[in-house]
Every structure is written in structure tokens, then in C-alpha cells.
Amino acid sequence: MGGLPLQNASSTLSLPGSEQNKGSAISTSVPESKQKKKICCACPETKKLRDECIVEHGENACAKWIEAHHQCLRADGFNV
């Protein structure tokens, strides 16, 4: 008597939930493949030169390399 509504409710809840999870997994994987680079991975050449200069000479002496890296990041679409 009371078992029928509970069985129907549990089967109704499990089926749509599993279908929704499959759909959301597919939809979340698509945008990830279309994402642009992260700022940490952009312009590795200028980043390396900037970092080496800062380690060896200090930030104040490396304005040229810092600005070159910023220009490269801006060219890649970052707002720095």
C-alpha cells in the first residue's frame, strides 16, 4: 500500500538525475576545450627573461623585461 508510491518516487528521481548528470558532463567538457590560455602559460619566452632578470638584478633593474612581458600578454588578449 505505502510501498507503491515510494517505489515510483525513487525510480522517478533516479532516472532524470542520471540523465541530467550525463548531459551536464558533456556540456561542461565542451567549453573547457575552447578556453583560451591561462595567463600563467602565456608568453613563456618573455616570462623567462623577466624572471631571470628579477632574480639576478632585482625588480627595479628589470623594467624593460617586465614591460616586454606585459606587451606580450596584451597581444594575447590579457588586460594587464
TrEMBL record:
Keyword Mitochondrion applies: yes
Spans through the membrane: none
Record's keyword terms, sorted: Chaperone, Copper, Disulfide bond, Metal-binding, Mitochondrion
Positions with biased composition (Polar residues): 7-32
Record's subcellular location: Mitochondrion intermembrane space
Primary localization: mitochondrion
Region spans: Disordered: 1-35
Family to which the UniProt record says this protein belongs: Belongs to the COX17 family.
PANTHER family assigned: CYTOCHROME C OXIDASE COPPER CHAPERONE
Protein name: Cytochrome c oxidase copper chaperone
Organism: Hevea brasiliensis
